[in-house]
Amino acid sequence: MSINLGNNEVQLGTSTMIITETDEKGTIIFASKDFCEIAGYSCDELIGQPHNIVRHPFMPSSAFKDLWSTVKRGEIWTGIVINRTKEGGFYWVSATVFPSKRRDGSTKYISVRVKPSQDEILNAIELYNKENR
User: Fold this and answer.
1) How far is CA 49 from CA 29, 31, 74, 115, 133, in A?
2) Smallest Cα–Cα separation from 99: which of 91, 88, 110?
3) pLDDT tens, 9-60?
4) What share of the chain is helix, strand, coil (3-state, %, to 5)?
5) pLDDT, tens digit, for every residue of 116-131?
6) Which residues contact residue 21 at a Cβ distance below 8 angstroms, ignoring those fewer than 6 apart?
7) Distance between CA atoms of 86 and 103, rounded to whole angstroms?
8) 46 CB-near residues (< 8 Å, 6+ apart)
9) What is the mean pLDDT of residues 94-106?
């Protein structure tokens, strides 16, 4: 299934850095100002919500299965991700996600996202079109 993403793309600036932290269940416990602005939510709307609140339907579930299995092993995951905004737009990010131990021994997951290159986006679209068939 190939989908038309439309013209509602939000472009990240070259200095934009989106940072979030989630708990072990994927619930947002910290959201940076850039994340809130790009996604179109207030910080209060995001804290306590599952991170998949911004999941775009074009993003294959296999990518998130890989992400979670990688970080649960204590490793770093990187990939190109398409997210959706509150108003129905979308934005592409180059994401790096890694686990971090909290003082109480539990694990939190930190995600740092920046603007991907156009080639990275085009490669992701091709791959995700194949995976969504």
Assistant:
1) 8, 11, 23, 24, 29
2) 110
3) 999 999 999 999 999 999 999 999 999 999 999 999 999 999 999 999 889 9
4) 30, 30, 40
5) 999 999 999 999 988 8
6) 28, 29, 30, 108, 109, 110, 111
7) 33
8) 28, 31, 35, 36, 39, 53
9) 95
